[in-house]
Structures are given as C-alpha cells and as structure tokens.
Amino acid sequence: TTLLGSDDKAGVAVIMQLAADLLADPAPRPTLRLLFTPDEEIGKGTEYLDLARFGADVAYTLDGSGTDRLNVETFNAAEAVLTVDGVVVHPGYATGVLVNAARIAAAFVAALPAEEAPETTSGRDGYFYAHTLTGDTSRAEARVLLRDFGDVGMARRKAFVQQLADDLAARHPKATIRVALTDSYRNMLRYIEEADRRVIDVAVEAAHAMGFEPELELVRGGTDGARLSEKGLPTPNVFTGGYDFHSCFEWNTIENLERALAYAKTLVHTWGERE
User: Which is deepest, 58, 75, 175, 232, by most CB within 10 Å?
Assistant: First the structure.
C-alpha cells in the first residue's frame, strides 16, 4: 500500500473543482485562501507555513474519511525512538561478552502493553504503536508512536517508555541504550475553542442547510489542522468521502466526492452570508 490514494487525492480534487465552480458563482462568499501542503502524513505539512502571509482567520482541511463527518478533535501525538548499541564478538566465544542489541530492542517492543495497541483499542483509547524494528547485534532501533487524547495520558505514556528504557539499561549495563521522545501534534479541540468556536458552529450550520446532522467526531489520527490550530489558526477537518485509509482496500465513489464538493460549496456560502 501507499499513502497516495483517496487520502488525500480526494481532497485535492474537491478543492480544485471548488475553486473552478466558485469562480463562476456570483453568490456571496468570503475571501478564500487555498493551500496544498506536502508531508502531511509525517506531520510536517505546515512546518514552514507563514500564517501571516497566508492571511486566513479560520480554515478547514479537506482530509476526512466517510461522509457527513467533521473532525474537531485529534490525538496528542509523539514518537519514541529507542536506539541500542550492543557489543559484538564471535558467537562461538561470546560467553559473558556479547551484548545483542537486536534482542534488547525486541524486548523493549515486547514489553509494550498488548491491550494498548492500535489493534486492541478504539474510541477515546490511546495506544503504543511499535511500527518499526530494525537492526542487528551491533545496533538496533525501535520506533514507537504514542497516542492519547489527554495530556495526562500522554505524559504517562512518555514516562512508561522512558522507564522501560531505563530498566533495560540497568539489566544490560554493557549496552548503550538511548530513547528520544519527539512531539508531533496536539489535540486540536482546545485550540479551536480558544481561537474561534465559530469555525465549528458555521460548519454545523452548513450541514443543516444541506439537510443533514453532521457527526462531530474525534479522529484517531492527525491532520494538518491539528498543527494549524495549535499555531492559532482554528482548522477542523472536513469529509472527502473515502474509506479504509492507509490500507490496500482504500476506496471512494463519485457520489461521495460530489457530496463532499456540495458541502464545501455550502460551507463557503454560509460564511459569505455571515459577512
């Protein structure tokens, strides 16, 4: 699989058609700024964005799954990277000398709670996701995503992996064991509510104008909107019709794309009626 499917080619297609349609539409609308970002899937889509130059007061990302959904809350996200340097000698004469970095890194991954993995959690549950384990006897690396909707929960997860690394270092004093913790993005709901709650209210109003009740859902993932909201530009996420993102079974339909486009137009015009 790749990360180049409906997530988020659907959003690009909707935005491009939206721009073409609005240019031919005399209905009231606010001034629009359109932005396409690279590297969203690695959390760096807005890293170098100049918000003052961009000049928007509120924003929406078109990067959501399904239909009739608005994402207003995300995980807090971080990554733990464990690096282990072992001691290499000939295995036939390794007694009391060899320190196998690969085994230590594997023990780190094995110690993560199985009941707090992506495949065993749902809803508001956070998780530890050991997504990469590489290396050999001399050096090994484990990369683990940490996800939690709350600050306290995220702090607990960071402390847990740090304690695991410390325990392994105590058990293997001849090895060099390091763990680096890096934040990726924060739960965007608090930043949206602090900056401008209208960005949610108008989105709901636009849905009502189309005759449906939107599902205000938390997204068990991240969007560029999480980083934008944290920087002061409140940015919920809007549906684009796709399903099964990041899998070999990802799909969308013309009908879903047309509904996403119709909603995007209604959203723009709803803001225009307020100005």
Answer: 75
